[in-house]
UniProtKB/TrEMBL annotation:
Keywords: DNA-binding, Phosphoprotein, Transcription, Transcription regulation. CDD domains: LuxR_C_like, REC_NarL-like. It comes from the Bacteria. GO terms for molecular function: DNA binding. InterPro entries: CheY-like_superfamily (IPR011006), NreC/VraR/RcsB-like_REC (IPR058245), Sig_transdc_resp-reg_C-effctor (IPR016032), Sig_transdc_resp-reg_receiver (IPR001789), Tscrpt_reg_LuxR_C (IPR000792), WalR-like (IPR039420). It comes from Streptomyces lasalocidi (Streptomyces lasaliensis). The modification 4-aspartylphosphate is found at residue 57. Residues 6-121 form the Response regulatory domain. This is Response regulator transcription factor. Pfam families: GerE (PF00196), Response_reg (PF00072). The keyword Transmembrane helix does not apply. GO terms for biological process: phosphorelay signal transduction system; regulation of DNA-templated transcription. The keyword Ubl conjugation does not apply.
Length: 221
């Protein structure tokens, strides 16, 4: 992308927020354009400032991070990277369902935070493959109370797109998909973008959850 990655930091704890801002401002190519102390303010500032990425704490006053994420994604204001204390916090499931690009633990190292923001800005998810598989399985196991996906959504996909979807379900990055399906990484990225568009999804993590819900397994090659 041209220019710096513009980031809005939404975190209700002032000390934590200050630390996040300090880390991000120390990184070349990243600009912190605003800070929000609650979900309502996060949505308002996303509308006003037009950031590329919103770093969103899931547990906030006035409007929780899941609801704020849903609004920001629904209005296509920015991509959202959610922050949580626990890697399988129930709030995370809601945020991913709402279209967040992924999640990051608050205990992550500074370099991990910086790389996560850059990765989201490139249009990729930031959940590590091993964690993705565990999270998706956990999500699917506990999603009986949620409407499950309709297999008919796959009818418009090509065979290659179904293969890409299965790779997303396994938590593979674009490079991993390219290696698994023996294609260029740029081609894999194009397939992922087209797939998300066809399925009406905002993030590759949403696609991964869909693959798990529909029982789509990667084929051996």
């Amino acid at each position: 992308m041209n220019g710096p990655v513009r980031v809005l930091v939404a975190e209700d704890q002032s000390a934590v927020r200050a630390g996040l801002v300090l880390i991000l401002r120390s990184a070349p190519g990243i600009e912190v354009v605003g800070e929000a102390a609650d979900g309502e303010q996060a949505v308002a500032l996303a509308r006003e400032l037009g950031p590329d990425v919103v770093l969103m704490d899931v547990q906030m006053p006035r409007l929780d991070g899941v609801s704020a994420t849903r609004r920001i994604i629904g209005e296509r204001l920015a991509d959202v990277l959610v922050l949580t204390t626990f890697d399988l916090d129930a709030y995370v499931f809601g945020a991913l369902r709402a279209g967040a690009a992924g999640f990051l633990l608050k205990s992550a190292e500074a370099r991990e935070l910086i790389e996560a923001v850059r990765t989201v800005a490139r249009g990729e998810g930031v959940v590590a493959p091993a964690v993705t598989r565990r999270l998706i399985a956990e999500f699917a196991a506990g999603s009986a109370r949620e409407p499950r996906a309709d297999p008919a959504v796959l009818d418009g996909l090509t065979r290659r797109e179904r293969e890409v979807l299965s790779c997303l379900g396994a938590g593979l990055s674009n490079a991993g998909i390219a290696e698994r399906l023996e294609m260029a990484e740029a081609t894999a990225k194009t397939h992922v973008s087209r797939l998300l568009g066809k399925l009406g999804l905002r993030s590759r993590v949403q696609a991964a959850v869909l693959a798990q819900e529909l029982g789509i397994q990667p084929s051996d090659r």
